[in-house]
Amino acid sequence: MGRWVRRASAGLAVATLVAACGGGGQTTTDDGAAPAGGEDGDAAAPAEDVEGMQEAEALVGEYPREETLFTSGTQWGPPSSWNPIPESGEATGVRGALYEPLFIFDPHTVELEPWLAESGEWTSEDVYELTLRDGLTWQDGESLTVDDVLFTVGMGQETETVGTANLWNWLESAEATGEQTIEFTFSDPRYQEWDNFLYGTMIVPEHIVGEWAPEEYVANANEDPIGSGAFRYSSHGADRMVWERNDDWWGIEALGLEMPMRYIVDIVNPSNEVALGLLLQNGLDLSNNFLPGITQLVERGQVETYFDEPPYMLSANTAMLVANTTQEPTDDAEFRRALAFSIDVDRIVNGAYGNIVQAAHPSGLLPVFSDYYDEQVAQEHGHSYDPEQAQQILADAGYEDSDGDGFVETPGGDAIELSLIVPAGWTDWMEAARVIAESAQASGINVVAEFPDAGALDDARTTGDFDLVINNWTTLSNTPWSYYNYLFYQPITEQMFSGNFGRYENDEAWDLVQELSRTETGTPEFQETLSQLQELSLTEMPMIPLWYNGLWAQYNPVQWTNWPTDGGDNDIYPSTWGGFWEFGTVEMLAQLEPAN
After folding, report:
1. How confident is the model at residue 30 (pLDDT cuts 50, 70, 90)?
2. Whole-angstrom Cα distance, residue 577 to residue 588?
3. Where would one find the signal peptide in this protein (predicted)?
4. Which residue of 10, 323, 329, 568 sits 20 to 30 Å from the alpha carbon of 465, by its own alpha carbon?
């Protein structure tokens, strides 16, 4: 049994966050404009000659239909990594189906549920005792033990590029005190942040990852992966990720969960048009894409959704406009505030989404945290669509259109042209980007929408090689702390994997984020700290809250039934997005039933 102790020189690292992937996507008309996705959207199946449709149908035909669950909506590029350590960029299902956390989080009860762990409790204000389940195994037959947990935590001692490095800022030691128990002693207990670690970090096998050099912890693609989960790696291709049921999974006995499907085939998204066609033709069981015409699809009985009326979907995350704060003019808070006032969010909500999403509160906090909104701060410092206000802020800050081309220049006289990037194929976001660009241009800010492939965008966002990017990793979690940790995270490293992609530096804000993690929810001190963070986020505007994304989930009940519904026996969040498996996706899959 091992022991890990904090070193005085331990570095900081990327925050441990739950990263929600999956934006959306919406079919486009022939001229490239997106139709409304609400009550009037056309839900007709796409024609056979739609690009990628025949290939997708052929893919479906390669697997036994009655034993296969087909999913889509997460993977927007060929699978290329099976490494759960970076917390982003991995193939669909790596985090949850293959690798597993100690606990999972139930958003309905706002409580942690034991998974690899049998239990966990604070035995004093600075000591947490974890008990691991007995009989856990890796898929190669090796036992999963406390040493694997200690190794996963201890990787943060070896390199600051992994999420667990952040723990060692406030974790003093981690020591096995028995065959199944670990005692974590904290120099600075952060109760909410610790809960995020417990359900947001995948445990990895020491006997495999321990053979890697520390610099490989993030860089290694981990081909031929060995996890502990309910599904094992089967195969992959440019158009798919295939998981096969692990019939030796420890959870069959310990959790009483059996997977009814032999295979999960996640189809790489060629387009949402193809996803819609497959869904309506029984080639897709769960679509986590944004699809137009949801009202008609539900009313006709062609698909099922969590709610049977608008908004049809659970709320998932906040779509944010991220500005690169390391370059001119987006390094200027006044310019960012002007940009916020220039954006016609209602046009996005009504047009691109047909009112199945809602505009974000100025704070950006999800509606589940509405009790924490400081409306006085929002009224004084918040933003809404107001082109005249945007132009006034620009003028007051020294931005003028000196050459008469309709766009302002920097106070130093340099031309401004900002590229706003969203992934190609995420067509609701593509339409939103067009709206943002057009409304910003109308206020004198030259923004151009561009659509790189998802892989190129991931690289640009991670390395800071962008002007503006839409991101929605402000996902549902157990606490508002995770939102502000995403917003203000420090230190700034060469690669930012989980938050603060705009590389905004504010020591005061970061200190408040850390104080929030130390404070118990529901106390006056908790609200006071939250109010200060809301004010800083609105006056500095490192990211601009836009709208609340739905948890896009449409089910085809022809092959599999008992999908999650409001008030149903199965009410678990129905998503294969990254960061949502930790909310119980494996339990959701176990509750599905063959239709025949």
Report:
1. very low
2. 14
3. 1-20
4. 10
Residue type, 429: W
Give the burial class of 531: count Cβ atoms within 10 A of its Cβ; 0-12 exposed, 13-18 middle, 19 or more buried.
Answer: middle
Report the pLDDT value the prediction gives residue 48, as an integer from 0 to 100. 60
Let me know the angle formed at the C-alpha of 412 by 409 and 414, rounded to the nearest 5 degrees. 45
Per the listing, tokens 């920097």 go with 410
**Could you tell me whether strands 263-267 and 240-245 are parallel, antiparallel, or unpaired per DSSP bridges?**
antiparallel
Q: Which residues of 305-324 are buried (b: 16+ CB within 10 A; e: fewer)?
A: bbeeeebbbbbbbbbbbbbb
Cβ proximity of 315 and 476 under 8 Å: yes
Instruction: Spell out the SS3 assignment of 26-50.
Output: CCCCCCCCCCCCCCCCCCCCCCCCC
Residue for token pair 């009410």: 571
29: pLDDT strictly greater than 50: no
Do strands 117-124 and 127-132 pair parallel, antiparallel, or not at all (unpaired)?
antiparallel
Find residue 245's DSSP bridge partners: 231
> β-strand 171-176 against 181-186: which pairing, if any?
antiparallel
Strand order in the sheet with 286-287: 231-237, 240-245, 263-267, 68-72, 286-287, 554-555
d(CA 161, CA 218): 7
pLDDT in tens, 281-296: 999 999 999 887 888 8
pLDDT value for 42: 47
Beta carbons of 585 and 575 less than 8 angstroms apart? yes
* 219-241 pLDDT tens trace: 999 999 999 999 999 999 999 99
By residue count, the chain amounts to 596
User: Tell me: the pLDDT tens digits for 415-448?
Assistant: 999 999 999 988 889 999 999 999 999 999 999 9
With contact defined as beta carbons under 8 Å apart, do 311 and 359 qualify? no
Task: Report, as an integer, the average pLDDT of 166-184.
Answer: 97
- Residue 198 makes CB contacts below 8 A (sequence gap 6+) with 101, 102, 103, 112, 117, 120
Instruction: Evaluate whether 513 touches 305 at the Cβ level (below 8 Å).
Output: no
Three-point CA angle 304, 309, 313, nearest 5°: 65
First to last CA, the chain: 49
Mean pLDDT over the full length of the chain: 90
Between residues 22 and 312, the one the model is more confident about: 312
pLDDT digits (tens, 9 = 90+) for 495-508: 998 899 999 999 99
Instruction: Tell me the C-alpha distance between 402 and 430, whole Å.
Output: 31
Instruction: Say if CB 260 and CB 590 are below 8 A apart.
Output: yes
What is the tens place of the pLDDT at every residue in 304-336? 999 988 888 888 999 999 999 999 999 999 999
Decide: pTM greater than 0.85.
Answer: no
- In terms of Cα–Cα distance, which of 16, 20, 15 is closest to 578? 20
What would the two tokens of residue 180 be? Answer: 């199944």
Alpha-carbon gap, residue 476 to 465, rounded angstroms: 27
* Max Cα-Cα span within the chain: 74
Q: Angle, to 10 degrees, between the axis of helix 191-200 and the axis of helix 507-518?
A: 80
Distance of alpha carbon 220 from the chain centroid = 22
